[in-house]
Amino acid sequence: MTSDQLAQGIIRQASRFIGLREVKPNADWDNPNTAGPDRALVDELRALMRQSPWEPGWAYCAAFAESMVLAALRSLAATPEQIKRWQATMTPHCVTSAGNFRERGLLSANAEPGSIWLARHGSTSNGHAGIVTAVRGMSMATIEGNTSLDPSSDAKEREGDWITNRIRFLKGRGTLNTLGFITPAAIIKLIGV
Question: Residue 36: which residues within 8 A CB-CB, separation 6 or more?
Fold first, then answer.
C-alpha cells in the first residue's frame, strides 16, 4: 500500500457518509435528501466508530476520521496487527490523538489530501477533527463529522450535527487552532507497511 492509495481510500470512504444529519444528538443519523431511513449506511458508520472506541452520545468528529482510516486500511488489505497499531494510537479525543502522534514524531505541520486535521478549542481539552480532501494556499477542504453547515459561533464550528464538506484555514479560525495533521505517510509509518 502506498500513501497515495491510502489517501484516496480515506477520502473515498469518508465521501460515502456526506449528507448524514443527526436525528438523535451524536447517536443516530439520516440523510434528509434521500427517501426513507439510511439504516444500512448509518449502521455501518456506527459499527466502524464503535471500534474507536466511541460511544453513542459522545462527540464523534475524531471517531469519524479514525473510522474512515480503518475502513480504508481494511479495503487495502491491512493486517489485523497493522490495524491494531492504528487503533492504539488514534483515539476519539482530538487533543489526546495529537499528543500520541506528536510523541512518535508523526504529527505534521503540513496538510495534504487524505490527512486527518486535528485542532484544539482555545486552551481547553476540547478539539475538532476532519479529513483533508484538498489544500489550496492558506485553506483546505475537509470532510468532517459532528460539524455545522452554519458555523456562526466557535461552538457550532466544532460541535454541529452534520457529516459534510467544509472549507477551513490551515491554521484554524477564532479559538479553534490547528494542532497538526496525521498524513497518510505517517499512518503507513505507524502501522509498519
Answer: none
